[in-house]
Design goal:
The protein is an alpha/beta fold and 388 residues long. It is built from 14 helices and twelve strands. The longest helix is centred in the C-terminal third of the chain and has 21 residues. The termini are far apart. It has two domains: 229 residues, Alpha-Beta Complex (Spore Coat Polysaccharide Biosynthesis Protein SpsA, Chain A), CATH 3.90.550; 142 residues. β8 and β9 form a beta hairpin. The chain is globular, with a radius of gyration of 21 Å. Helix content is 47%, strand content 14%.
């Protein structure tokens, strides 16, 4: 029997496997939402089937894509009884798809893989061994970001910041802000506390990690060998930037604020909130650089203001230098990736292109970001003085 939040999920088992060929002791269930992942899914399937941990099941959730990815999954399923397929009644997005996978999973632990990524062969075994030996609810492994040609980007691993934050006494939800794919999570923990992904098509993983991090758990890092390889694709839904993605991200932010408002709003929650606001300001500034997104950017900012007004800020020190931190954060993002299709890679031509994009934005929108920051500064100051 599943927890109440799984009730009403309209899922259909499309194909059944030979259960007598699968170990009853499933240690890890791997959940993959599938919607037009491209050719990378073949590499992903191969890496999962070659895991040295054999007691696994692979749950592919067909989210009604238009490419041939699910045909490749079905071909692999005919050869490997550990592969299970679930089909959504319609395209629901990654959050509801993963929730459907959680509901169907039978493993002791869960791991969430994107179907265009891949894992080193010993990755799951190392994480499971760490969790089993130390009776941990959550274990986080290594994750690297790569381009299609294998070039590594974002060289500073998130684990560095997580360990630093934990050593400084920060609660888990403030440091576990992304990379949900590199977590091994106790299935009983999720069902017991009704922790699930958000319904928004963008930011659903941040909503999940916020819910997860707010729960009392035993947590550990495992960095002894294997790696999760996150593949950056310029044609992926995550890399695209349009009005739909902008408003979907706002929906995700609303879900996160709604969750926080039902919990204790302490200093850490307020800091987490302001970090999310900074991220949303970066998105707004980026959207404002596209003439075709001008109307959506205005609607996005209006909705963002409404969420800021909902959230209590009691301690003036929390918002100290918000506008400076927001500006610096935006500047850093602009220099690294001014547009979604342009990652800064080693090479003079790439740095020149990045510089041209930066100058173009400055000349076209010299007052845009300061106006945004000033407006939020006024809102927050009015909240702090009790005038809002």
């Amino acid at each position: 029997m599943y927890c109440s939040f799984f009730k009403g999920l309209n899922i259909h088992l499309m194909e059944k496997t030979q259960n007598n060929q699968i170990s009853e002791n499933i240690k890890v269930s791997i959940i993959l939402p599938v919607w037009n992942p491209g050719s990378g899914i073949e590499r992903c399937i191969q890496s999962l089937r070659e895991q040295t941990l054999r007691e696994i099941e692979m749950i592919f959730v067909d989210d009604c894509g238009t490419d041939d990815a699910m045909e490749k999954v079905r071909t692999a399923a005919a050869e490997d009884p550990r592969i299970r397929i679930i089909r959504n009644p319609e395209n629901l997005g990654p959050g509801p798809s993963r929730n459907a996978g959680i509901a169907a999973a039978r493993g002791e632990y869960l791991q969430f893989t994107d179907p265009d990524d891949y894992l080193d062969a010993g990755y799951l075994e190392e994480l499971w061994q760490e969790a089993d030996n130390n009776n941990l609810d959550i274990v986080k492994g290594r994750l690297v970001y790569e381009t299609e040609d294998g070039t590594q980007i974002r060289h500073k691993d998130r684990n560095f910041y997580i360990k630093k934050g934990i050593d400084q006494g920060y609660p888990l939800f403030t440091v576990l802000t992304n990379q949900h794919q590199s977590l091994l999570i106790s299935r009983s923990l999720l069902t017991k506390h009704q922790i699930f992904y958000g319904n928004s098509r963008c930011g659903e993983d941040s909503t999940f990690l916020l819910r997860l991090g707010y729960t009392e758990v035993s947590f550990g890092l495992c960095e002894t060998g294997g790696t999760y390889h996150y593949k950056y694709r310029e044609d992926s839904s995550m890399s695209s930037f349009n009005d739909r993605k902008l408003m979907n991200t706002l929906d995700g932010f609303r879900e996160q604020i709604g969750f926080l408002l039902n919990r204790k709003i302490d200093l850490y929650a307020q800091k987490y909130f302001l970090l999310r606001v900074e991220y949303m300001l970066v998105l707004h500034a980026k959207a404002s650089s596209f003439p075709e997104l001008e109307e959506s950017a205005a609607d996005f900012f209006s909705g963002l203001c409404e969420q800021v007004k909902r959230f209590p800020l009691a301690d003036p020190s929390v918002s100290n230098n918000l506008y400076i931190r927001g500006l610096m954060k935006y500047k850093q993002n602009l220099l690294i990736k001014p547009y979604p299709s342009s990652f800064a890679r080693p090479g003079l031509r790439d740095y020149m292109r990045t510089g041209m994009h930066t100058l173009r934005f400055v000349f076209q929108h010299p007052y845009e970001l300061p106006a945004v920051i000033a407006e939020f500064s006024r809102i927050i100051q009015r909240k702090l003085t009790g005038k809002l």
